[in-house]
Specification:
Blueprint (H helix, E strand, L loop, with lengths): L1 E6 L4 H12 L3 E6 L9 E4 L2 E4 L2 E2 L3 E6 L9 E4 L2 E4 L3 H24 L3 E3 L2 H6 L3 H10 L7 E4 L2 H11 L2 E4 L8 E2 L2 H5 L9 E5 L4 E8 L2 E9 L11 H4 L4 E4 L4 H13 L4 E8 L5 E7 L5 H7 L3 H10 L9
Parallel strand pairs: 1-2, 1-6, 6-9
Antiparallel strand pairs: 3-4, 4-5, 7-8, 10-13, 11-12, 11-13, 14-15, 14-17, 15-16, 17-18
Bound molecules: adenosine-5'-triphosphate (ATP) and magnesium ion.
Length: about 325
């Protein structure tokens, strides 16, 4: 059985999954997600997919580390980042390339290949407001939330909730408190809506769910306490530690229910656990980074992904 890995040969997570695929008796095929950008030869000949001249029509599953999206190239100037002179042509090319990849993945899915995760689920899931509603729908607690481009509405929310954080809809920026300069510059929010939330104090938990199996659930410990743990240089340098956490049955059910609503076969779920024992859900990641936990605690997350790709039942973690 051949299984694709849509990623990079330099990505340790892709390599770890490739190794597990081989251990399960499957053949892994690396499909570089920058193949078109790197001008490698890719074709669809009368509906038959050729990757660097090799027929890859028989893939029965694939792990998708990332799906390329259209982007406009920028250059760094003293005034900040600005569009490159030839941005329009580059942007249009990147749109065509993204269309090729997504059509390919949709075609694989239509043929019954197991994609971890399905391209639609992965792209829809970048939209936090939808995810938050899915979490709410299954009964999970989420922080009080306002998504808005209206400074007046935001000031009212702040007056009512008091301790408020803000973060982008699509992710990609550190979570910050709504206070001081941020509050003074609130007019800037008219450019695009931002997520404002009640600040939840507590442990940062990360749960890895493969189908219905919780393969890993840990509290992330960094040397200093930060609002967003990724802001701690120790975390970026790989000095975080992890403590296994037992999830109550109901919390596990919330994880399974939300992942199902969001069509995620595999999900990395972020939860805050408060000192008073509440479990407050923040988001579901469709392609979480997890290798540090796997290496440090021996949680077999790569194996679970490989099992999903080949269609085997996920092995429950050793207790
Ligand atoms: N309401 C909140 N209260 C307290 N801390 C929060 C809150 N929302 C986010 N955080 C902190 O910021 C971190 C990042 O937030 P979140 O997981 O919602 O988005 P993200 O990881 O930036 O999204 P993406 O993965 O798409 O980039 C959380 O893990 C948590 O540490
Ligand atoms: Mg997160």
């Amino acid at each position: 059985m051949r299984i694709g890995i849509f990623g990079s040969e330099n990505d340790p997570q892709c390599l770890a999954i490739a190794k597990e695929l081989r251990a399960l008796g499957a053949d892994d095929v690396l499909l570089r997600y920058d193949a078109l950008e790197a001008r490698l030869p890719l074709s669809v000949l009368d509906g038959r997919y050729l990757y660097r001249g090799v027929d890859v029509d028989d893939l029965q599953g694939a792990y998708l580390k990332a799906i390329p999206a259209p982007y406009a190239p920028t250059v760094e100037k003293t005034t900040g980042e600005v569009l490159a002179d030839d941005w329009f042509a580059s942007y249009m090319h990147s749109r065509e390339r993204a269309s090729y990849y997504v059509a390919w993945l949709l075609e694989l899915q239509a043929r019954g290949a197991r994609l971890i995760n399905a391209p639609h689920a992965a792209s829809v899931l970048q939209y936090k407001p939808f995810q938050l509603q899915a979490l709410k729908r299954v009964g999970a607690r989420i922080p009080r939330t306002l998504i808005s481009n209206d400074p007046d509405q935001i000031r009212d929310f702040k007056a009512e909730v008091k301790d408020v954080i803000f973060k982008p809809l699509m992710g990609g920026a550190i979570t910050r408190k709504l206070e001081g300069e941020a509050l003074d510059q609130l007019e800037r929010v008219r450019n695009s809506p931002v997520i404002f939330q009640e600040c939840i104090d507590g442990d940062d938990l990360r749960v890895m769910l493969a189908h219905d199996t919780i393969v890993s659930s840990v509290a992330i410990r960094t040397p200093q306490q930060h609002l967003d743990f990724r802001d701690d240089p120790a975390y970026a340098d790989g000095h975080a530690s992890y403590e296994p956490v037992e999830l109550p049955a109901q919390v596990q059910q919330f994880c399974r229910g939300a992942a199902r609503l969001c069509n995620l076969a595999f999900a990395g779920i972020d939860i805050k656990r408060t000192a008073s024992g509440e479990w407050v859900f923040l988001e579901l990641n469709s392609s979480p980074i997890y290798l540090d936990v796997e290496w440090k605690l021996g949680h077999r997350i790569s194996r679970a992904i490989a099992e999903l790709c080949v269609g085997k039942p996920v092995t429950p973690p050793d207790r």
